[in-house]
Amino acid sequence: MFTSVLMIEKPLTPEDVEFVTTLHGEERISFVVLLQPRGDQADVLLRAIDDVAMGELKEAVREGEEPEGDEARETAQIGLEYSLRALRDAGSEAIGQVIENHPLDKLTTVVEEAGADEVIVLTAPHYVEEFFHRDWASRARHKVGVPVLKLFAHSE
């Protein structure tokens, strides 16, 4: 069985589930899902810039209204359970956890413990972070010893 560590920022959409579960054709896939809720990092400005770059001006204005830190943890746990159930319903094995601090350190540990074959980073575009190679996928490529695939999540 092929094992993928799947890093996400929000619950998987049905399109995301279909996409990641069919990446390797008919091969059965086991997923270890890591969901990081929005943290207390001062990245509201970066997210707003990304929204503006994508032409989503209303979203840019609302960035400060999204739950952060502890408030986001409960929502993240619900989103993780939803995503795990969707992956299982699609025929894959799936376990996961909400991660908060040092997501790339946790990713490295999970890759080693699971004997993962790859890492899939499934996020919305983050143009500023990507330009400076500070996004999860760029940084993960230097930390984990397996291929890292960056995919853009579908929006609702």
Account of the 3D structure:
- The protein is of the alpha/beta class.
- It has 7 helices and 5 strands; from the N terminus they run βαβαααβαβααβ.
- It has a 5-stranded parallel beta sheet, with helices on both faces.
- β1, α1 (14-21) and β2 form a beta-alpha-beta unit.
- The N and C termini lie far apart (30 Å).
Q: Main traits of this protein?
A:
single chain, alpha/beta, five-stranded parallel beta sheet, 5 strands, globular
Straight-line distance between termini: 30 Å
SS field, number of helical segments: 7
Please give the largest β-sheet: 5 strands, parallel
Beta-strand content: 15-25%
Gyration radius, rounded: 15 Å
Order of helices and strands: EHEHHHEHEHHE
Molecular shape: globular
- Mean pLDDT across every amino acid position: 78
Q: How much helix, percentage-wise, in residues?
A: 40-55%
Short description:
By secondary structure, the chain is α/β, with parallel strands linked by helices. 43% of the residues lie in helices and 20% in strands.
List the helices and strands and how they pair.
Elements: E1 2-8, H1 14-21, E2 29-35, H2 44-53, H3 57-62, H4 69-89, E3 93-98, H5 103-114, E4 118-123, H6 127-131, H7 136-140, E5 148-152
Parallel strand pairs: 1-2, 1-4, 2-3, 4-5
